[in-house]
Amino acid sequence: MKDQVLIAGAGPVGLTMALELARYGVPVRVIDKIPEATHTSRAVAVWPRTLELLDRSGAAADIIAVGNKVTVANILSGGRPVASFALDALPSPYPFALMVPQYETEAVLRRHLAGHGVKPDLGVELLGFEQDGDGLSARLREPDGTERSEPYAFLVACDGAHSMVRHCLGLDFQGDTLGLDWTQGDFHLSGYPFPSSQMAIFWHEDGPLLFFPMAPDRARIITSLGPSTATPPVPLDQDAFQKMIDARGPGGIALTGTEWVSAFRINERQVENYRSGRVFLAGDAAHIHSPAGGQGMNTGMQDAINLAWKLALVIRGIGTAPALLDSYDLERRPVGALVIAASGRMTRIGTLADHTLQHVRDFVAHILMGLSPVQRALTGLMAEVSIGYPDSPLNGPFRGEATAGSRVRPVAGEVPFGSGDTPLFIACGGAGAAELAARFPRLVAASPRSDGGTFLSLVRPDGYFAAQVEEADWQALVPYLQQIGAER
Ligand SMILES: Cc1cc2nc3c(=O)[nH]c(=O)nc-3n(C[C@H](O)[C@H](O)[C@H](O)COP(=O)(O)OP(=O)(O)OC[C@H]3O[C@@H](n4cnc5c(N)ncnc54)[C@H](O)[C@@H]3O)c2cc1C
């Protein structure tokens, strides 16, 4: 089908993309070359902004039901507390980091996708593609080995860190590989010195040890192995992990079972452009970085949510502005760069090798991380609730108090922006909002929800401020909306 979107890759990002497009009524085909869904744990943290955005499709509650809520993040060094971050102070209806194995997150997304009549086609591999101004032809290998070409309107590459789409486009994946090897695993354990609602990072002179509790007796544990050598890193088995924990941890923790172990090196890379014509890159295909902070999957899922409503508006013939699709790269590439820089900084601070610098770090971190503004800034960044699009070409006039492109804080119990089966801008206000909705019925819905002030806010389908003017000045938003799309 020429108006169909092909999504290459049914990982968390491809599934999120498919779910968002499907609920907006866009025909999608989501394929994955693997014959069946993977059951490795991989990404373990789902952060508040991701949950806020997944609430629009109804998936957030089901993911929360299978996860463990972490409300405190502790940092210790040499057995002494350095800092403690209260995540339950985050300005979100979901003030916690949810610990849940990636396969559970994916299972929930697949279930919700099935609710819209879409099932990923597994065992189908994208071999190549060609595009022109009218569409795109994708060469696919079906599970029985036959190869054929199919027409699509757009291709979204959610095909992971080794993205074949990125290679086909000849796009650089600029960046570096850091020089340390790491190992991680999901273990059953006893003797963890914190409640399961608290995660802990133990800085140690030989390397950090991180605990992400998934249940009272189960945790993701990550530790560094030392400088990389010519051979690929090998995961530690349970006995070797136990020795590391005894050496670097607080003492008294006993591993009682292993679910999964892996070893990895940290790459910090980002593609030079998230779009090439009718092809968009999202998730690990576009950016990879340190797992410190567990931001990889979250950032990728938010890429998908950013792109989906824009594609839906264009495919449904409502959105006409070239800036709509152009804005995807302009908005999401800076976010990817920010996440790479922040997670890299955290990793480098945690792996300082020089003993004198370690003492300075502990001292400075203790002072700085005890300050409320620093706490707010760091937790806001991790939770991705402070991320916005201040330089977006989609930002309209801002004459009120809101910062251009900033996140609209969802209110617990209220229907989130962007729910429903059409990607509508929400005009929050009074008579002016109603006028806009009447004039742009396919693009705008009015909502009486407001902060009680005198401003009329226009909120994007993904819950960021698009514009804000005085209520009496509502006509100032007409040229803005005329640029975005159709009046009728
Ligand atoms: C061992 C491991 C541990 C990890 N641990 C963490 C962690 O602790 N915390 C964290 O935040 N992140 C972690 N990650 C990263 C996290 O898993 C990724 O950020 C996340 O999976 C990205 O999702 P994605 O959908 O972009 O890509 P992926 O999950 O990689 O999915 C890409 C999919 O595309 C498919 N595909 C590839 N090429 C084609 C093709 N040509 N045709 C069809 N299908 C194709 C693949 O089979 C795959 O299923 C880990 C990753 C790995 C590998």
TrEMBL record:
Gene3D superfamilies: 3.30.70.2450, FAD/NAD(P)-binding domain (3.50.50.60). InterPro entries: FAD-bd, FAD/NAD-bd_sf, RIFMO-like. Coiled coil: none annotated. One of its GO terms (molecular function) is oxidoreductase activity, acting on paired donors, with incorporation or reduction of molecular oxygen, NAD(P)H as one donor, and incorporation of one atom of oxygen. Its cofactor is FAD. It comes from the Bacteria. It comes from Ancylobacter tetraedralis. Residues 4-341 form the FAD-binding domain. This is 2-polyprenyl-6-methoxyphenol hydroxylase-like FAD-dependent oxidoreductase. Keywords: FAD, Flavoprotein.
